[in-house]
Amino acid sequence: MHSTPTCTPRGREVGDDRLFCAAFNGTKWNTQPAIPGNSTVGPSLAVLGAELHAAWKGEQEDSDQRLFHAAFDGSKWSAQAQISGVGSSVGPALGVLAGVLYAVWKGEEADDRLFWAAFNGSTWSGQTQIPGAVSLIGPSLGIPRGQAVGCLARLV
Question: Of 23, 50, 115, 132, which residue is 20 to 30 A from 44 by alpha carbon distance?
Fold first, then answer.
């Protein structure tokens, strides 16, 4: 059975903001190669085609609210790339619909609005606000039966 990365815990020590990816082969977990980026919040994962995609919020608690993205091709991670012009205090959720990778996230700091963007395999679209959707802690994203469904805790 081919190993596929399925889990990305944060670093193992207090203050260690590195990201790791472990693969499970059906029997055991392998070593944890680093994802090229750091975060104080664990990344979200989704599979697009033959690649595993990860997206995460920047490191250093609240001071870096940029969002980043990288892809794993089965042997190595791409360099991290910033998702231009967007930010979140909690990080994104990822999902794939009709061959397109989508990210959904809560805004920066006290901005409780939710936004989304699409990745076409090479570039991200600009962010678009989801009308009427707000959350203090950010969303989850699922794609059952070909329809995107976002779940959020409406705590505002």
Answer: 132
